[in-house]
């Protein structure tokens, strides 16, 4: 004989399952304890629950008197259940980029709900009894979702399990991650990737080294293992072989630090902020133009706002204001730099006009004029 509390709970669960969204409550009540007890299997438990949810819930929504009312209840329940289960598995077994596998089941439920709505509409037009609609809907959802979504998920799981078991990344597959060097040794570098985990990576003669970043065109020297020092930003392309990450490419990130070696900027930095009797340009706005060849317009217009503390913003015509600019004034001489002296605007101030030259790190030089706005 079944104890009365268990019998009562069983009847309540049966009634709940018949309600739109009730499946979500029951699945969460079963899945959450399994996640907390079985951490290692949590990603697979959650994936199975999220995939099963649409097949169990949408037929019940379809069986209700109003598909619309059922959908308005069931859809928010699905969003809450998805957020709770995916957040819980991330807390007990962080997946990083692998959590993208949950994107397919997240899309599965609205897709299944829409198919159920089409089935209900077809029955309404055909004036057929609604009793068989849930069975027809379940078949349609199973066939269409199985082909469109579950097939790719299954393949993804097969490849993922294969890598976990064998320790080898499948052929024609590789990973690419940005990170920061923690330490380095001959043939090995430990990199902290964006998820916070430190990944030991092996490299050898077949590993390609290169430079990336805004300062890479101006780097002196060749890329190589000598650049792998603590704190260095890198991008690593790698695969797993026998559970060990093997790098096919390591790319050193180089920021621009042009002003630290730019003689013109260093000279302006050492000069007095303003000669006696010459007012500071802080708080003024200037619209400057340079001639261009081969562009959509004969001139390129840039507006500069010279802020206090020698900060500046700039904006190209039709663009948004950008930071990353500074200015120096020495009497009637003005120098503006953008992106660590990648580009410089130098000129002489005469009343409300500036005449001078634009130059950049790639060797371009052209006259520059500006007027006060």
The gist of it:
The chain is of the alpha+beta class and 373 residues long. The protein has seven helices and 14 strands. Mean pLDDT is 78; it is low at 1-13.
Describe the sheet with the most strands: 8 strands, antiparallel, barrel
Unreliable stretches, pLDDT < 50, 5 or more residues?
Answer: 1-13
How many distinct folded domains? 3
**Helicity, in percent?**
25-40%
- CA gyration radius, whole angstroms: 32 Å
Strand order of the largest sheet: 7-8-9-10-11-12-13-14
What fraction strand? Answer: 25-35%
SSE string: HHHHHHEEEEEEHEEEEEEEE
Secondary structural class? alpha+beta
Could you tell me the number of beta strands?
A: 14
Instruction: Report the total helices.
Output: 7
- So what's the overall shape? extended
- What would the average pLDDT be, to the nearest integer? 78
Query: How many angstroms does the end-to-end distance come to?
Result: 90 Å
């Amino acid at each position: 004989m079944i104890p009365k509390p268990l019998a009562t709970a069983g009847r309540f669960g049966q009634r709940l399952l018949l309600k739109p969204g009730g499946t979500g409550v029951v699945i969460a009540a079963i899945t959450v304890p399994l996640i907390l007890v079985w951490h290692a299997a949590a990603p697979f438990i959650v994936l199975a629950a999220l995939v099963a949810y649409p097949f169990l819930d949408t037929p019940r929504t379809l069986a209700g008197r109003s598909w619309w009312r059922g959908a308005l209840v069931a859809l928010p329940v699905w969003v809450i259940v998805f957020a709770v289960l995916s957040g819980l598995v991330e807390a007990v077994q962080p997946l990083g980029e692998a959590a993208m596998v949950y994107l397919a089941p997240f899309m599965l439920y609205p897709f299944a709900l829409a198919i159920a709505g089409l089935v209900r509409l077809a029955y309404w037009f055909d004036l057929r009894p609604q009793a068989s609609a849930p069975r027809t809907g379940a078949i349609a959802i199973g066939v269409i979702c199985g082909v469109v979504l579950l097939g790719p998920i299954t393949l993804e799981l097969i490849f993922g399990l294969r890598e976990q078991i064998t320790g080898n990344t499948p052929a024609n597959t590789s990973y690419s991650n940005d990170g920061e060097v923690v330490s380095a040794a001959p043939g090995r570098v430990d990199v902290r990737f964006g998820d916070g985990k430190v990944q030991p990576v092996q490299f050898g003669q077949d590993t390609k080294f290169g430079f990336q970043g805004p300062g890479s065109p101006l780097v002196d020297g060749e890329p190589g293992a000598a650049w792998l020092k603590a704190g260095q930003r890198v991008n690593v392309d790698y695969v797993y072989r026998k559970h060990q990450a093997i790098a096919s490419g390591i790319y050193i990130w180089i920021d621009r630090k042009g002003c630290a070696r730019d003689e013109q900027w260093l000279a302006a930095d050492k000069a007095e902020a303003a000669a006696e009797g010459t007012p500071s340009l802080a708080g003024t706005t200037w619209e400057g133009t340079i001639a261009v060849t081969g562009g959509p317009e004969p001139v390129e217009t840039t507006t500069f706002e010279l802020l206090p503390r020698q900060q500046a913003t700039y904006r190209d015509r039709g663009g948004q204001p950008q930071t990353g600019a500074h200015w120096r004034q020495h009497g009637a001489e003005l120098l503006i730099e953008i992106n660590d002296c990648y580009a410089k605007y130098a000129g002489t101030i005469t009343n409300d006009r500036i005449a001078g030259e634009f130059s950049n790190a790639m060797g371009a030089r052209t006259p520059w004029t500006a007027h006060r706005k």
